[in-house]
């Protein structure tokens, strides 16, 4: 879905809700397997019938205090922004500082309402309340990699260097902080070389498989094709567009024996190790020390949640320096502000998200498959959230830096691209991307109408916000409360962005012309 391999799929067409309420199919191959722009499925069903609706009063989000019992002290834990929970005396108030694009933010986690709120359940997802502080944290990195055919501009050696070797070298150099480089031994990477089936491609894949790479990493590469005669049997869609089966590709790579073997090697002498299935795209420009960030996120979370690690986590992605950097920061920060209150109310991008493997399993047991051939992340997370204990975390720690897709365009405001969550329509679509909100509307067009109500949470005047929350045609449950809190947080962030832009415009206007 979001997601290099941009050569196969343009991330700029992230299923933009601006262009259509329906899924927008790719119109040409992308230069990568998964590109970084989010393909939004703006028709994600939200019309689940309501039952036993209770009209709880709306608590204004900016001043709401949310506490859970701390089983290790006589105090209570107050839920703060992003991944950290701080131990405060009862009645302490939460900071409401919201960072601007590019500024470091607080880290956040929120426990899901499922499972014990005090975290006392023994989990089958890799840990228990008796968390060993020395417990290993490891990563199985899953990278689908689209392979171009040879042409006059690219030799076999150039393709090799641009694909597998480049990614391995990049991970070695930028995956961890210098002081954490010892953890490279706790990483394994599976690379799935693939493309649409043809005799020429099969020959190309065979040559790439026979090449030897230089790396200190545990890694394996596999090759496969997709199409009517491919390893993944897949027909072009009825409308004859050359669709790419992204979900099937992720699934094929996930379930491959080489992937399972790497997980077994990671477990090795550490059967109790926490192993995260890390989804990455091959168009990564820099890993930006993201795995050092993930180590810190997991450690902090275990310390504040009785040894329970996050189940799903992401730090998102940004584009490199240039015209697209700020729009990517605004998009990512909007997701982070949403996740402070509503962790499953935003999209976890395929270029960078992790899922904890269940203890004893040698791959991710949940599937990427579902209706359609895109949106791998929410399809998987919808299944993962049914685990006995589930915690999702989207933090402001180091993001992946990924290349800008060729078709990605900055809008006239200079702040957004078509897929940006700063766009109310995209935000509203992602708010129910994991099916947490239960709409009371039914029938044809109900999902679009519900989305319209959600958009108004960001676009209405301040004095109407509380009433807009009350008027939402959704079940007034915990997800509803989190949604309203998230909307209030995003509204404040949007104000600060606009104020920042206004100050910069005034400053530019005062500068003398050269």
UniProtKB/TrEMBL annotation:
Region annotation (Disordered) maps to 1-28, 48-76, 92-134, 493-514
Quote the biased-composition stretches of kind Basic and acidic residues, using this chain's numbering: 7-17, 109-121
Ranges that cross the membrane: none
**Chain segments annotated as coiled-coil in the UniProt record:** none
Q: Which organism is the protein's source? A: Salmo salar
Q: Where is the composition biased (Polar residues)?
A: 63-72
Question: Which gene name belongs to this protein?
Answer: LOC106587367
Protein name per its UniProtKB record: Uncharacterized protein LOC106587367 isoform X2
Q: Where is the composition biased (Low complexity)?
A: 124-134
């Amino acid at each position: 879905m979001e997601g290099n391999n941009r050569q196969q799929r343009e991330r700029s067409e992230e299923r933009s809700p601006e262009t259509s309420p329906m899924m927008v199919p790719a119109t040409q191959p992308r230069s990568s397997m998964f590109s970084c722009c989010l393909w939004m499925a703006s028709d994600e069903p939200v019309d689940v019938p309501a039952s036993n609706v209770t009209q709880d009063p709306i608590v204004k989000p900016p001043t709401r205090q949310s506490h859970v019992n701390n089983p290790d002290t006589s105090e209570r834990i107050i839920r703060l922004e992003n991944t950290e929970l701080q131990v405060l005396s009862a009645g302490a108030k939460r900071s409401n500082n919201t960072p601007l694009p590019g500024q470091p933010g607080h880290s956040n986690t929120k426990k899901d309402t499922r499972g014990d709120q005090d975290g006392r359940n023994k989990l089958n997802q890799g840990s228990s309340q008796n968390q060993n502080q020395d417990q290993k944290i490891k990563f199985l990195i899953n990278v689908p990699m689209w392979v171009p055919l040879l042409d006059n501009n690219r030799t076999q050696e150039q393709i090799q260097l641009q694909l597998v070797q480049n990614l391995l070298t990049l991970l070695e150099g930028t995956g961890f902080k210098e002081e954490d480089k010892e953890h490279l031994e706790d990483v394994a990477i599976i690379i799935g070389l693939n493309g649409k089936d043809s005799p020429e491609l099969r020959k190309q894949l065979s040559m790439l498989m026979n090449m030897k790479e230089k790396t200190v990493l545990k890694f394996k590469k596999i090759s496969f094709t997709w199409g009517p005669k491919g390893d993944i049997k897949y027909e072009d869609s009825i409308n004859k567009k050359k669709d790419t089966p992204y979900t099937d590709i992720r699934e094929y790579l996930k379930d491959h024996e080489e992937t399972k073997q790497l997980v077994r090697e990671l477990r090795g002498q550490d059967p109790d190790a926490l192993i995260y299935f890390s989804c990455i795209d091959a168009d990564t420009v820099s890993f930006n020390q993201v795995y050092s960030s993930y180590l810190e996120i997991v450690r902090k979370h275990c310390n504040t949640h009785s040894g329970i690690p996050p189940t799903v986590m992401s730090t998102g992605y940004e584009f490199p320096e240039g015209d697209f950097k700020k729009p990517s920061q605004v998009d990512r920060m909007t997701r982070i502000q949403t996740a402070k209150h509503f962790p499953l109310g935003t999209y976890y991008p395929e270029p960078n998200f992790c899922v904890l493997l269940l203890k004893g399993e040698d791959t991710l047991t949940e599937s990427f498959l579902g209706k359609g051939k895109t949106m791998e992340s929410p399809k998987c997370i919808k299944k993962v959230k049914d685990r006995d204990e589930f915690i999702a975390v989207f933090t402001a720690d180091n993001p992946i830096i990924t290349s800008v897709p060729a078709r990605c365009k900055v809008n006239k405001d200079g702040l957004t691209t078509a897929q940006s969550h700063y766009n109310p329509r995209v935000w509203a679509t992602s708010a129910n991307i994991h099916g947490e909100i239960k709409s009371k509307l039914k029938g044809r067009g109900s999902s679009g109408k519900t989305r319209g109500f959600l958009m108004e949470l960001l676009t209405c005047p301040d004095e109407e916000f509380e009433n807009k929350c009350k008027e939402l045609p959704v079940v007034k449950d915990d997800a509803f409360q989190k949604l309203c809190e998230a909307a209030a947080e995003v509204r404040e962030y949007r104000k600060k962005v606009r104020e920042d832009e206004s100050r910069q415009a005034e400053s530019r206007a005062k500068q003398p012309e050269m």
